[in-house]
Design a protein that fits this description.
The chain is mainly β and 250 residues long. It has 2 helices and 14 strands. The strands form 4 sheets. Strands 3, 5, 6, 7 and 9 form a 5-stranded antiparallel beta sheet that branches. Strands 11-12-13-14 form a 4-stranded mixed beta sheet, with no helix packed on it.
Length: 250
């Protein structure tokens, strides 16, 4: 599994293998492009899979898990590709991608050595089961290939985000102390993935506020950041190291 600090956004990249259907390709060279807006880590892009039977399509399926407040969420599926081998001049790898029979790329994907390419749906798809199919063009001499897939579920936006001053302060604190936790996105929203070791207050029709931060055993050093003073709703700050506990109460 790859995540922070390999991925600065703390995305969780989970290996997925199907040895009965896929064969793996890998490289030790850097695989990253300056124009990759998704900034997929090289460690993730250094492996790829192709069909074990080169004449077959590359098929990937999964069943979405219903969410309590959103039983049929829409999904954006972002697929990442890179050619990891130097191909002979006579070799051609081109393919189309479809989801549940709907084509995503009208122009066949053509990859370049250690370059990166992205294919995704432009609007959210809602299905009980997703089937991704990569099929080679008629003039392709090589089977399809894929390096990584990201799944983004659509979430309701009716909930107010965390107070902007609290967000700015916690981002500054994270940068100063190099906090290695899941501190990405909105600190308090949604509740189920609020930032680790942080507590928020939730009041109807008001923005969530950060009321408690626990930075114990986080390897902190130096002075207390002045950014803590910008957390106007903060009530508790816990810092524990080497057996001693400091609790700052506002």
């Amino acid at each position: 599994i790859s995540r922070y600090p390999v991925d600065p956004y703390d995305r969780v990249w989970i290996p997925w293998a199907d040895p009965k259907e896929w064969t793996e390709i890998s490289t030790t060279r850097q695989v990253q492009s300056d124009d990759d807006d998704y900034e997929v880590p090289s460690a993730v892009m250094q492996t790829a899979v192709t069909p074990l039977n080169a004449s077959k399509n590359l098929e990937i399926s999964w069943d979405p898990v219903p969410q309590p407040r959103n039983p049929s969420p829409g999904y954006f599926i972002v697929m990442h590709f890179s050619e990891l081998q130097i191909l002979p001049s006579s070799a051609v790898r081109q393919f189309y991608v479809s989801i549940n029979g709907m084509a995503l790329n009208m122009t066949a994907a053509k990859l370049y050595y250690h370059g990166t390419a992205v294919i995704s749906n432009v609007k959210p798809y809602r299905y009980d089961k997703f089937n991704i199919s990569l099929h080679a063009t008629t003039n392709s001499t090589l089977p399809p290939i894929i390096n990584a897939i990201e799944l983004f579920s659509v979430m309701p936006t009716s909930i107010l985000g965390t107070d902007s001053q609290d967000v700015s302060a916690t981002v500054a604190i994270k940068d100063k102390y190099h906090v290695q936790k899941n501190w990405m996105g909105d600190p308090c929203i949604p509740k189920t993935i609020a930032w680790e070791r942080m507590m928020c207050s939730y009041t109807i029709a008001k923005t969530p506020r950060i009321i408690s931060i626990n930075l114990s055993f986080s390897g902190l050093n130096g002075y207390i950041s002045s950014s803590f003073a910008n957390l106007k709703a903060l009530q508790y700050l816990y810092v524990q190291s080497s057996g001693s506990v400091l609790v700052f109460i506002w």
